[in-house]
Design goal:
By secondary structure, the protein is mostly helical. It is built from two helices and two strands. The protein has a two-stranded antiparallel sheet. It starts with a helix and ends with a helix.
Length: 89
């Protein structure tokens, strides 16, 4: 292998590893949302949720556009969880 092809192969490996991590996180987030009664893929609930990665392999999750009622539901759940955490601490 030449140095150029070896570097390209390493970059592709890093990208795929990052993509796998991001897909795993997106799947877990989708399961959590499902437990909350939020359907991923439903236009009125949560249209898009995708695992992505940069060319350098940095994983991230694309959340898409979240409808306001869904965002309010998540915000309320987070505020409730934080208040419970503070009471128990």
């Amino acid at each position: 292998m030449t140095p150029d092809t070896e570097a390209a192969a390493q970059q592709a490996d890093a990208f795929m590893a990052g993509k796998r991590k991001a897909d795993d996180v997106a799947f877990i987030l989708g399961q959590v949302l499902k437990a909350m009664g939020i359907t991923v893929g439903d236009r009125d609930s949560w249209p898009q949720l995708r695992g992505r990665a940069s060319l350098a392999g940095e994983p991230y999750v694309y959340l898409g556009t979240v409808p306001l009622p869904t965002a309010q539901k998540l915000a309320n759940a987070l505020v409730h969880a934080e208040s419970v955490r503070r009471v128990e601490a």
